[in-house]
Write a structure and sequence with these properties.
heterodimer, A: 182 residues, mainly alpha, globular, B: 567 residues, FAD/NAD(P)-binding domain, six-stranded antiparallel beta sheet, five-stranded parallel beta sheet, 12 helices, 24% helix
């Protein structure tokens, strides 16, 4: 069970997402391309908007953006250790967000106002296509990015721990002892 | 006939460690095969992803799974393959030292009544209750040995259910205690029940070549970074290896025990780290892979004299699988209800609660029915794991919480209160419908059939579990806790498993004799929790350790006594 390859894709992948999610204006790509993680560029923007809605940034309380939750999801989707069935489930949920959004508002999710986004996600929660399970999983992954040791790339400067006054245990894992290197 | 080793131990946890330690101490050569890697204190960090979310200490379920069958309320069975439904993971720590690396170290002795349940209380319909072939007095010296060799910290107090002891007190003083312990004592006094200090297999001061506890608050589920926790690895195997007579082979998956036409084991077949098939032999073999895997290994080891699996001529291997029955509960103490100073003390994490109630170990309550076996109530901190705790907050009354309401709830949960959990333990009654067999479809990466665990349970587990949990809840209420809830469940705690190869005097109804040697296989001993015909009404790691030391003495005696100190 060699998990070392994870390290490579982790560092390479993070940079790639930073480019696609942070600097791309909406629909700027001339032709949508399926990336390594099996998502179109546009879908990364949908995902980021969903995460932001589920866990918004506030002045004194970090949100999904502040803990790099979208990068966390990207690593999960690129990790060979992640079960293929689970990856398909994660990708299908993102597609379902835009489908639901088009159905209700004839617009993609990123173009919607806050209340419309709420309606789309609540509608997914009620849907029969595992929408609720997908939303739960999104929130759980936000919590991983919020509250795991910063050595894994989320929870920068322990912002999540500090916010919730959580005292971490020691010794904390050094870089070379992250779980996939054991 | 010459052998590679005097004794071959399969499995390095609480059942295997004492045998390796004692045999090596007595001058015998021992090899220990462990399917998992050899991590040390240098590899254990307080990393929730590693221990509890990505499961770095257990096998990949896609390659090594189990099948679990549970009863449906409406009748019939539900089949689950654990690779698909990972919440039913039956692996508990597959590394050198086994799951004892990840225990909380709640150490309870069984009590004399546990050894003679049938003769004390009579039969229970639908349960295979029996007396043990040994008594508490046979095991007492070994409970004491564990206190000194593994290192148990505690304080003996006088109470009606105190079991007999050959020494007056524990060799190590109790581990540091949290202010909540004092609140429990006061509440129990008010209610007229006995709040008893709970012993821990954790060193409260440096000794035995190990450091003291560092009180960082992340103990159960985590590997210990100081060596204070009395895992089989830190407390026993490290010493055995240092002595030069014990060899540990990590990353070695045993696939079969080979036997000859007399029925005796001739060799162990295993796969090394590179999946190469290898063999090792010894005069005597000890299996201690934790209940489910021990039974599976025997059932997978066919031989001329063992057409239904090794030691299974009575058809008893895998039967009467046990867990810990019981209930649970929790309550919240709001910091705002305490003075600033007290609230600060309450906020600290690290010191233990260490309190148990044994008053209901035997329930003599006309309102509950005839006098019967009850159990133990433990009080513990809520597990500190922040991701898991946060995840439990997303359920709202009208659906999922998200957005700012979710954030406010997290703030309230993490910042404003301390939580106490009740863990109530009663017997998991042995029943026909709780057993291990081989699955006919699913195989592991070495093409061996995986274990299928049928997890039926007796309704008495639930009744006693409810009773105990509600008694625990009364204590929480008397402490002034809010949101007090208590409940019982028929779902087994998968980290506390025993049975499957019960010991007894009758070869027709048991797998092992009183010495934990297989009735059918002269050179096979089983020393994990599999031997237990009943598992007591408290976590049973101490009993597994103690019994393994007892069996080690039987093995030493059989091999000719202590070679280094001839008598």
């Amino acid at each position: 069970m060699d998990r070392r390859h994870f390290l490579k894709i982790t560092s390479a992948g993070t940079a790639a997402t930073a480019a696609t999610t942070a600097s791309l204006p909406l629909f700027s790509a001339p032709k949508q391309q399926l990336g390594d993680a099996g998502l179109y560029d546009r879908q990364w923007q949908t995902l980021e908007a969903v995460l932001d809605h589920l866990f918004p940034s506030e002045a004194d309380a970090p949100g999904a953006k502040d803990v790099k939750a979208v990068h966390w999801l990207q690593r999960v989707l690129l990790d060979d250790e992640t079960d293929e069935v689970h990856k398909r489930f994660l990708r299908a949920g993102i597609a379902q967000v835009d489908e639901t959004s088009m159905e209700l508002y004839q617009k993609s999710f990123v173009e919607l106002q806050h209340d419309q986004r709420e309606t789309v996600l609540r509608s997914m929660e009620q849907s029969k296509q595992h929408g609720r399970a997908w939303l739960q999983e999104m929130i759980r992954y936000i919590f991983e990015a919020l509250l795991s040791d910063p050595v894994y790339g989320g929870n920068p400067q322990a912002v999540g721990w500090r916010w919730l006054q959580h005292i971490p245990g020691f010794p904390r894992p050094p870089k070379e002892k992250r779980y996939f290197l054991l | 006939m010459s052998h590679d080793f005097d004794v071959c131990v399969i499995g390095s946890g609480a059942g295997g460690g004492p045998v390796a330690y004692a045999l090596a101490e007595a001058g015998y050569s021992v090899v220990v095969l462990e399917k998992g890697p050899w991590f040390t204190e240098e590899d254990y960090y307080k990393d929730e992803l590693a221990c509890c979310i990505r499961n770095a200490y257990t096998p990949d379920l896609k390659e090594q799974s189990h099948v679990v069958e549970t009863e449906l309320d409406e009748g019939g069975l539900r089949r689950r393959e654990t690779a698909e439904e990972t919440s039913w993971n039956l692996w508990n720590g597959n590394v050198v030292g086994g799951s004892s690396n990840f225990m909380s170290g709640f150490f309870h002795r069984l009590k004399p009544v546990d050894f003679k349940q049938l003769s004390t209380f009579g039969p229970i319909e639908g349960a295979n209750v029996t007396d043990w072939p040994i008594s508490y007095d046979d095991l007492e010296p070994y409970y004491t040995k564990v206190e000194h060799v593994v290192g148990v910290s505690g304080r003996v107090v006088d109470h009606p259910h105190q079991e007999p002891r050959s020494t007056t007190d524990f060799p190590y003083p109790p581990t540091a205690e949290h202010p909540i312990s004092g609140l429990i004592d006061l509440a129990c006094e008010k209610l007229g029940v006995h709040s008893v200090p709970l012993p821990r297999a954790i060193l409260s001061k440096p000794d035995l070549g190990r450091q003291s506890c560092s009180y960082n608050g992340y103990c159960g589920s985590y590997g210990c970074a100081t060596g204070a926790k009395g895992s089989s690895r830190a407390a026993l195997l490290n010493h055995a290896v240092a002595g030069g007579r014990c060899k540990i082979l990590p990353d070695s998956q045993v696939t079969r025990l080979q036997s000859d036409n007399s029925g005796r084991i001739t060799a162990v077949e295993y796969r090394d780290k590179n999946d190469v098939v290898k063999h090792v032999n010894a005069a005597l073999y000890v299996v201690a892979c934790q209940a489910v895997e021990t039974s599976r290994l025997l059932l997978n080891s066919l031989g001329e004299k063992h057409p239904h699996g090794l030691a299974n001529n009575s058809g008893q291997v895998g039967k009467n699988l046990l867990f810990a029955g019981g209930g649970a509960g929790s309550g919240r103490l709001r910091y705002a209800d305490f003075s600033t100073e007290k609230a600060e003390a309450m906020r600290q994490i690290g010191p233990f609660i260490n309190r148990s109630i044994y008053d209901y170990y035997v329930i003599d309550d006309a309102g509950f029915g005839e006098k019967q076996k009850g159990g133990t109530i433990d009080f513990v901190h809520l597990h500190p794991n922040p991701v898991s705790r946060a995840t439990r907050q997303m359920r709202g009354s009208k659906g999922l919480l998200w957005g700012k309401p979710l954030k406010r709830r997290l703030e309230q949960h993490f910042r404003e209160s301390s939580y106490i959990k009740i863990e109530a333990f009663c017997d998991w009654l042995p029943v026909d419908d709780c057993y291990v067999s081989l699955d006919s479809k699913v195989r592991d990466r070495w093409n061996m059939p995986v274990a299928k665990a049928r997890l039926g349970f007796h309704v008495r587990n639930l009744q006693v579990g409810w009773y105990l949990a509600s008694k625990g809840a009364e204590v929480l209420k008397a402490m002034g806790a809010e949101n007090v809830v208590s409940f019982a469940s028929g779902s087994p705690p998968l980290n506390l498993m025993a049975g499957g190869c019960r010991f007894g005097d009758d070869p027709e109804s048991s797998v092992l004799n009183a010495d934990c040697r297989a009735h059918d296989v002269d050179n096979l001993y089983i020393t994990d929790g599999s031997f237990m015909p009943s598992a007591g009404s408290a976590p049973f790691t101490w009993t597994i350790y103690a019994n393994a030391f007892r069996v080690a003495d039987k093995i030493i005696e059989r091999l000719g006594g202590n070679k280094l100190q001839p008598s």
